[in-house]
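User: Alpha-glucuronidase, Sphaerisporangium rubeum:
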Amino acid sequence: MSRAEEFHPAWLPPEAFGPVGARRTLVLGDGPLAGTVREEVARAEDRYGGGASGPPYDLVLAVAGSGPLPDTAEAVVAECGPIGAEGFVAGRRDGVTVVLADDPAGLLYGFFHVVRLGERAFTGAFGPQAHRPAARLRVLDHWDNVDVHPVMGQVERGYAGGSIFWRDGAARGDLARVRAYGRLLAACGVNAITVNNVNVHATEARLPTERLDDVAAIAAALRPYGVRVHLAVAFSAPVDPGGLPTADPLDNDVRAWWAGVTAQVYAAIPDFGGYLVKADSEGQPGPFTYGRGHADGANMLAAALEPHGGVVRWRAFVYDHRQDWRDRSTDRARAAYDHFVPLDGRFSRNVILQVKHGPIDFQPREPVSPLFAAMPETRLALELQVTQEYTGQQRHVCHLAPMWSEVLRFEPEGPGGPDVATLVTGDPASSGESGGLAGVSNVGDDHYWTGHPLAQANLYAFGRLAWTPRTDSAAILDEWIGLTFAASRDLAALRRELHAIMDGSWRTYERYTSPLGVGFMVRPGDHYGPDVDGYEYTPWGTYHHADRDGVGVDRTRATGTGFTGQYPRPWSEVYESLERCPDELLLFFHHVPYGHVLRDGTTVIQHIYDTHFAGVEEVVAARSRWEGLAGAVDPDLHARVSTLFDEQLRCAREWRDQINTYFYRKSGVPDAHGRRIH
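Assistant: Predicted structure for Alpha-glucuronidase:
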């Protein structure tokens, strides 16, 4: 890999390949992905001295039917049944570790599984154990602009520098970093990316028609690691750049235009994945312009993609962003359900409705979107935001895997029903018609990929949860630490300190920012730092309704917006009830007095004070722990994180002081502990 020194190796440092590189390995399989495995093994062997020619082998990596296996490997294979696409079986007996796959993609994932295990892959006996991805589609959506946007820059809501694909209106010439990115993604289980912004601007709208060579070059760089390219497309593209007088999805000329363009895309990129669409949302054009519905628009694109095996992912993020703040009957939280539930069963089978995990917009705390329980006849994908737009923008340590795990394990139909993980993954071993998981990428051209070196853990966790959604989030973090800091002289001590810093960091961030489910107390525009009333009187929606008597949004059926009624029982009753509503979501569903008593015996106003003081103290403690790691990690990495911790602490104090002061002045209730509030 050329100029690898220009960027951080993340969770694939050379030291992580030591256990594989010191062994004798046999690779059996044909095609580019099997070739990638051979290259990876050869690179590791060159560095660590393994690879003595001929048997006996320590590690056998084989695609089924690709050639004769050593006897011990045959014995492991004899215990295996069908494996399935992208899956693999790993086992060990008589001193030989065996990975068997039905296809080369599974072989690639099996190889990285062995890398994750390290020395454990070559210790004792185990298996055979089957490993299959829960979802066929595990995709990262980049919000990268080809041209530099005058407001949003090269990457919208990106906090790690510029795009790794585009620069100043053109494709970046050197694709070594793109190939390295594909390698990182394969190692954590991601198999697709969207290379441009869902908010499609003029230049990006021409990618499928006039810039295909650029997209094809990116696809070629990612292909050796099994990562397929998707494109975000503009619904209005038949008009501009297409030259048609309309983009009406029921117009025959429009349908023919999309069919022709899509055929050209597949001619240039045979393994192209499909289209991502944001329509009738925040100014993006859509079928509403022509009096059509979202099923009409999505199905039109699905028809163009279907002959080629592609999918259209249609975002459910549709709401009125020009509402009157005075009208409390309008509720942004209701919008996705109101728009899409009546369309259940009307979407083509290669349409995936991509649903944000919560009903608002990636806030630090939201209830799970009611759509997951309301559209059984539609393929649904769960959309998570890996880039930390509302969770510290990769300037704050905020490990998001615990939050995502809570979402994935939530049972929208009540205890004992299917969880969100089941609803979005289905049974890929049979129909393969699950929606999968999508994440908004947090990668840029920063040396550390994600700006904050510890934010790499969020990217890694997304891939691992997309592959196995019920994996314990602490175990995923442990994997990431073990790989990323494989060269550490005292890895056990480093693990302890990083777990102490990161395990609870999401809840720490929540404590010093948004209390009890209230969202959008951020500064409008850049969404960084506190501005309690910043969005309260804007057309984007109102979010806390604080007055002299209380705080929170009444979303009950009895007296509020009725949003609680979008959930099935028992959640509709739980969220409706002031007594049963979980405290962490109280202000999302209810407007309550400042003296309302929570389950722990504190009042709402005292909870606000206590958590904001506690959150800052937790940042101080985490910062101190990190300073104690000087000498235990790379000096440059340590310095970067130290600088960012300084900013996090400054910002956390600002959050604490502004939030506490605001609510003290609203309520007139002093802090019971007499701490300073301005």
